[in-house]
Fold each of these.
Amino acid sequence: MYLEFINQVVSVLENAVQRAGFEPVEIAPEPSQHADLSSRVAFKLAAVARKSPVEVANQIVENVQLRENSLIESIGTTGPYINIKASRTYIDCTFETVRSKKEDFGGNFYSGKILLEHTSANPNGPLHVGHIRNSIIGDTLTRILRKTGYEVDAQYYVNDMGRQIAIVSWALEHFEMDPDLKSDHAIANVYIKANARLEDDPQKVEHIDNLMQLVESGDAEVIKRFDDAVDLAVKGIRSTLLRMNVHHDSFVNESGFVRSGEVSDIVDKIRKTGRTDVDDGALVVDLSDYGFEKTLVVQRSDGTSLYTTRDIAYHEWKAMQADRIIDILGADHKLISGQLKATLNAVGLKEPEIVIFEFVSLPEGSMSTRRGQFITADELLDKVQARAFEEVEKRRPEMSPEFMKEVAGMVGIGAVRYDIIKVSPEKSTVFDWKAALDFEKQGGPFIQYSHARASSILKKAGEEGIWDPASKPNASVLTDESEITLIKQIALFDKVLKQAADDLKPHIIAIYGRDLADAFNQFYRFSPVLGAETEELRNARLGLVDCARIALANVLDTLGMGAPESM
């Protein structure tokens, strides 16, 4: 509804500018403390018109024409600023639209197909804390882009033939996996042992190199060994991802691009650019004119390809599958991602849009680690969910263990996802599980609790026979400041969805969710619902509670968080 409001404002002002005799100019109204929207268009026109901005603003407003039932109440001036106030129609239409569209409220204004790659951790062990931000940013962006109307294919690019996988394959031949461990954790254990053995006996490194040559040349036995190792690790990784409510549509193996001949083809295309040279037997690409002093190696001296080479072939394939390509990468990939884009550009291929994120860390001493190992995502999730269970048990001791476990799962995973996503990707962040689970702070649990509160109010009203979800309350009786503020906050959902999708900044939705929950709680604090003065007002306020519940549920779903009906 907010986007429709903005469109009407732009159209009205453009027509007023034209009728006032000024040259057409871009109009971009912005939020204002003094009105619902404000425009600085008079400043743009003043110099050309040789008039003061105040005079220009007054002339524009004098030529404003509003149609009947417009979403605009009035357009006036404060000095050189043009201020726009939303009409009662805007309030009532928002109320009715939310209740009629329900889970479809918000978005659906874009089209096209996007291929979005995220996580893509090496399958040589479990996901660790460092991977979590990649997964959550990628999954949340997928949800945002789908909500705005795009068809999105979320992909995990599986490194199934690099040196690390060769070591895992070799490790499985020399060390026994612990059957009591989750498969990806068991893989990590033998991988660590193998690396220690290789350090003690460097001659065995030649055997690893040989395995890499054999798998690239198509040796069936070695390929099967690699595939078996990768399958074990990916099985465990997928389990962890699903636990975090992170979903991929497809897992694409990099080896497929070697076996299909696409890697050889892309190397030939790179050679034809005239940028290649041989350095100590390896084929390298000169990207100095793109600002990279360091050359990019695309083929080793033994003729085998590198991860980067296979990644270029993967991106050529992706370019044929979608209108847009998006990669979610850590800050340590800035150089290689830049070289990747430059190489693709040099051979005339579509470049990906790359979201670079800084790393997430844990406060010192926040939880224990096994000596010599990283903190796994599973360990972190176990700790957070256990703490969430304690909190739910303390607050709702009368409830069943099944209820406590279900809510603790929603709250724990929601707390992790929200605390990670609330920070803009380019900023580093520290995940503090105690702060994330603090119900008193405006974090994930605060938004979930607001949804649960709205659901409980409606449930109680239904049990008392004073609320029918199919009813059509009279929204025009909602005139209190807290009521209008809440409705206007709900109406902003379209705007923040568009901004988050356009800028690829998922934290915008997280901030909006917090503000929406705050607006709902302020409304509930100042506007009695079940105890309203009249039946008509009570029904309207119950309808507004329903609007808030719907909007909160849609925001939580977009953030990949559960929407509990009771907490």
Note: Residues 220-243 form the longest helix (24 residues).
Amino acid sequence: MSTDIATVATATRSIRNPILAGFHPDPSILRVGDDYYLATSTFEWYPGVLVHHSRDLVNWRSLGGIITDRRLLDLRGCGDSNGVWAPDLTYHDGQFHLVYSDVASFASGYWDPQNFLVTAEDITGPWSDPVKLHGRGFDASLFHDDDGTTWLLGMSADWRPGRDRFGGIEIQQYDSAARRLVGSPRILFTGSPVGVTEGPHLYRHDGWYWLITAEGGTSWEHQVTVARSRELFGPYEVDPDGPLLTSFGRPELRLQKAGHGSLVRTQNGEWYLAHLVGRPYSPLGNCVLGRETAIQRVEWPSDGWPRVAGGVPADDVVAPDLPAHPWPAEPETDHFDSPELGRCWSTLRRPATPDWVDLHTRPSYLRVHGGQSPVGRQAPSLVGRRVGAMGCSLETVVEFAPADHRQLAGITAYYNTLNWHHLYLTRADDGRTVLELLSSDNGRRTAYPDLTVDVGGVTRVGLRAVFDGPAVRFDYDLGAGWQGLPVELDATILSDEHAALIIDGEPAAWGFTGAFLGLWVQDLGGDGVHADFDLATYREQ
């Protein structure tokens, strides 16, 4: 099964969760006519805000990303798990509206967020220049009321020592004609006793305003909270029966971290909740696949509160009464015949521009011009794709002629600047081209000199990275078939949990992105080197 397309046997008329496997968090779901769209967070990766499309809520295909260039967002210097948080996708007056947050910091409660709005008549663009909104918090969303007014909601951050960092849900009117916020902001909702109130989405239904928020933090205590009011500005009453959805207190569930949800109503009046989940490799253990997207069926009686069966995430959900609409399967192998990178690929901190991602000079090859070191945050040269299963692999064939030890090209199992495994070609001091292995665990690097392989004049080298549950393995092919490096590396360091770092009660680092498999080229001397990749094959077991 592809990372980006979840295909379920339509004869069963069920949805198998997660519908978007691998790093696809904070889903915002939208229906326009017979089409359903899901927008998800992307943090420091381009393209920003991935969008998936469905016509039956069972089968999904990737439409790629909306934020494709620096005109819409500049991620140079972006920290690990900073960047694009919690997008919101709506449709109003013949236009798609996308609101997204660019979060710049974690330190001492200074998130330094900035919220933007772009619009388009078609989901595939072109998208307008961004409207700069406010920087008072993150997880911003739009609500288009029945009277024609539009409102911006968001988490209200409070940096002051001793205060609740999550100061409530704020609302302010947005003037669509003037493309600016108007009036004064006001706090709409201060949350339930669970706290960490964020991720608001507002709906009008059955004579009520319904406020859906994420609470409890984005890990094991995560939940979806529902509150309602007869008036836009409240007061909002929290569902007395507790959260609409949570995995908290149920470590036996396959789907954990259930929270951050948004609602959609089908053409036939059925309701569904899209939300994030995580699949730990052991009970409440590390989630190498990151935070994924799932869907639950919602029952909503007249004048009653919405309900998900049992209030917990189900692995299999009854599909809506809609015609089945599967999509063609994504090919396993990318031969790099297209003039642009395929939708399965993402690039780290800079868009895939021709100055470093070249699909033209050598047809049917991906030429990657080398970039910064693993800790560089301005111009790294890493082309990756999300890890979508506990068992999966990426293999490639690379041609690379390094001139010294500052030039490296190969394959990586990657999480962030501090956590990765890298098998690469480089040049030894004696002039040989060699294959070396290097790992980084929270910045502590481990080399494996005993595993160095003399390439011996071979111009085309096969490289393969394999995720096998909690282990990562690397293989190589010098023309005589695949050979495995005799070492198993720790896959669980490539996880949200491992990346998180709390110092004196403050987050010094966080983990929101999930693991990647990628093609990585480093030119540490700035000598202008490049590597050519002939193909890339991704498989899941």
Note: The first strand starts at residue 14 and ends at 16.
